[in-house]
């Protein structure tokens, strides 16, 4: 059984002590990181959240019983020690506290520990699944503690900055109404309303709009959100947003306010100076130049439109793409002719097929001449035109995709990133922030055979495009903007619709009948009739932002207790069945359905 504190108080954290404190009497508390027994001396590295301090148990300074007790100490035991801070005879330059140590006078073993199933150091090589099963041990690792402390700092900076700029922190409901558009809702059955369900919020979108027409003017919340969708490295079923909204604003006002936040955030977390104003690029230009609406601009290698150069070509692959309204585009790997084998190029062809491209044409201009399986289908004039349009020269490799634009953009955008990784084109320690603006208001869903909102149906169209909602919905641009960091969307937002009539029109365009819109959004449509200010805002994915600032590849590394790929928790085994009594109280029966 462990001992009790009995009034002992910690005087400081381990790394708050330095050579200047030598001779000071201190009380430290923490875990045993490493133990070395040299017979008459026992050395322990004591670990707390700040770092390490060497603790010395000297046989000549302790009673026989206390030294025998010290001999029982093992890794991960929890100790409280009192002693004198002294200068070390053998300095350890690799430890921040490597010049000093604590000579123990008294100590308590607060808790013993079994041998941990995973290593609690940063050298842990256990599988992620095992680390998540023992997450409370995994979180003892210094890198994990550093990540979560940084996440806390990001949230603190956000609250502080927006508070200084007049934003009011307001909580919105977690049990709310299920609404369409977006991912699947997580549903919560109501015990007192049999057969009815709450939904966990995918975002506080509607509530923050209602707060604007309630007159609060500026809102901020660190909000928990929930989406029942397939997971990946930067996605979780429950996640966190830095959520904000402003009244009487246009796009420039919202973006300007957030540029100030980002400048402050990067300075205080990474000591990185962000130059303002941030670059802006229209959505269509981002797609044409980078094949992505979240372009990584830390390196060049932009897409080149070759459609005009091959418009009269007899090559059927090119002609079929152009005649169906698509395009022929390429990217050039400059000076890389000797870095790709035929096998590697063939593998890239298979890679782009995962993005729905039918294939990958290529030209490799080596010293001995041009190598290409499609050159025989092109005239000298067409080859010359392609070279000029693509800025393709001796020593380069040109990759070409021909298809409808969405496929070409997606395939070449992904290939661009893969080539940059292979060719080491992405610089370390560089943070490129930019805005992507003027997104399409709507996109056509082949699955649902209707237009759907690209962001959400509460986004305002560009003023001059409102008439196109009746004549050409696909050409309508939105007052929407995303903030992108190194090829990752870290936040996005829009100016909202503040007219009840326009909001009803938007529901109509996305295929909702008047009755459906009234059933699902009556509270919003009613509210918009009572005097609504122009308003807009945005939200940052706090998890993704923390992941990028911490330089880790997965948001699971910046979330204390994350889920895995199938949305389960290895630590708690959630989700799991509940007993029949709970189900009966909720008027629920679990039935097995056959797969159709």
Topology (elements, then pairings):
Elements: E1 25-37, E2 41-48, E3 51-58, H1 64-70, E4 78-87, E5 100-111, H2 128-133, H3 135-138, H4 142-164, E6 168-169, E7 187-189, E8 197-199, H5 205-213, E9 218-226, E10 238-247, H6 251-270, E11 280-282, H7 283-290, E12 304-305, H8 316-323, E13 327-333, H9 342-353, E14 361-366, E15 369-371, H10 380-390, E16 397-403, H11 405-422, E17 433-437, E18 442-445, E19 450-453, H12 468-471, E20 480-485, E21 488-495, H13 500-509, H14 514-527, E22 535-541, H15 542-550, H16 580-585
Parallel strand pairs: 3-5, 6-9, 11-17
Antiparallel strand pairs: 1-2, 1-4, 2-3, 4-5, 7-8, 9-10, 10-22, 12-13, 13-16, 14-15, 14-16, 17-20, 18-19, 20-21, 21-22
Reported for the largest beta sheet, the result is: 8 strands, mixed
Which residue ranges are poorly predicted, with pLDDT under 50 across at least 5 consecutive positions?
A: none
Computed Rg: 30 Å
Instruction: Please tally the β strands and state the result.
Output: 22
**CA-CA gap between termini:** 57 Å
Please work out how many helical segments DSSP would assign: 16
Shape: globular
In what order do the strands lie side by side in the largest sheet? 6-9-10-22-21-20-17-11
State the secondary-structure class: alpha+beta
Helix fraction?
25-40%
**Strand content of the residues, in percent?**
15-25%
Write down the overall mean pLDDT: 95
């Amino acid at each position: 059984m462990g001992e009790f504190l009995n009034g002992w108080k910690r005087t400081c954290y381990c790394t708050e002590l330095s050579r200047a404190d030598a001779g000071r009497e201190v009380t430290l508390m923490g875990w045993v990181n490493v133990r070395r027994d040299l017979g008459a001396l026992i050395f322990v590295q004591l670990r707390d959240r700040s770092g390490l301090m060497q603790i010395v148990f000297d046989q000549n300074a302790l009673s026989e019983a206390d030294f025998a007790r010290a001999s029982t100490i093992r890794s991960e035991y929890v100790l409280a020690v009192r002693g004198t801070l002294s200068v070390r005879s053998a300095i350890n330059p690799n430890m921040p506290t490597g010049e000093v140590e604590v000579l123990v006078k008294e100590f308590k073993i607060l808790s013993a520990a079994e041998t941990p199933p995973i290593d609690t150091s940063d050298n842990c090589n256990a599988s992620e699944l095992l680390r998540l099963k023992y997450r409370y041990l995994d979180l003892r690792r210094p890198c994990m503690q550093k990540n979560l402390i940084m996440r806390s700092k990001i949230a603190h900076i956000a609250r502080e900055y927006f508070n200084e700029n007049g934003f009011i922190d307001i909580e919105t409901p977690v049990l709310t109404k299920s609404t369409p558009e977006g991912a699947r809702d997580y549903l919560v059955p109501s015990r007192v309303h049999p057969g009815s369900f709450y939904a966990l919020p995918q975002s506080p979108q509607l509530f923050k709009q209602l707060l604007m027409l309630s007159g609060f003017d500026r809102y901020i919340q660190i909000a928990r959100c929930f989406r029942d969708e397939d997971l990946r490295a930067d996605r979780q079923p429950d996640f966190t947003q830095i959520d904000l909204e402003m009244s009487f604003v246009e796009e420039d006002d919202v973006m300007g306010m957030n540029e100030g936040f980002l400048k402050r955030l990067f300075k205080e977390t990474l000591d990185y100076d962000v130059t303002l104003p941030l670059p802006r690029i229209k959505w269509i230009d981002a797609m044409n130049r980078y094949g992505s609406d979240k372009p990584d601009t830390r390196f060049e290698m932009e897409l080149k439109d070759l459609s005009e150069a091959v418009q009269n070509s007899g090559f059927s692959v090119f002609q079929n793409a152009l005649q169906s309204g698509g395009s022929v585009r390429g990217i050039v790997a400059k000076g890389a002719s000797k870095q790709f084998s035929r096998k590697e190029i063939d593998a890239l062809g298979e890679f782009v097929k995962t993005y729905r491209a039918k294939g990958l044409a290529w030209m490799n201009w080596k010293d001995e001449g041009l190598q290409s399986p499609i050159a025989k289908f092109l005239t000298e004039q067409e080859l010359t035109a392609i070279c000029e349009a693509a800025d393709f020269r001796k020593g380069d490799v040109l990759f070409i995709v021909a298809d409808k634009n969405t496929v070409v953009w997606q395939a070449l955008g992904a290939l661009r990133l893969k080539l940059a990784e292979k060719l080491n084109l992405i610089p370390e320690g560089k943070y490129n922030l930019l805005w992507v603006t003027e997104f399409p208001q709507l996109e056509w869903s082949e699955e649902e055979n209707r237009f759907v909102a690209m962001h959400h149906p509460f986004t305002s169209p560009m003023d001059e495009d409102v008439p196109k909602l009746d004549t050409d919905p696909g050409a309508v641009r939105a007052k929407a903007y995303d903030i992108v960091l190194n090829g990752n969307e870290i936040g996005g937002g829009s100016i909202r619709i503040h007219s009840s009539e326009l909001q009803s029109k938007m529901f109509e365009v996305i295929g909702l009948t008047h009755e459906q819109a009234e059933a699902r959004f009556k509270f919003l449509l009613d509210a918009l009739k009572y005097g609504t200010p122009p308003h807009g805002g945005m939200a940052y994915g706090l998890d993704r932002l923390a992941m990028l600032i911490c330089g880790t590849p997965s948001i699971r590394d910046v979330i204390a207790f994350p889920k895995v790929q199938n949305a389960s928790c290895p630590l708690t085994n959630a989700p799991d069945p509940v007993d029949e009594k709970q189900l009966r109280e909720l008027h629920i029966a679990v039935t097995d359905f056959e797969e159709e």
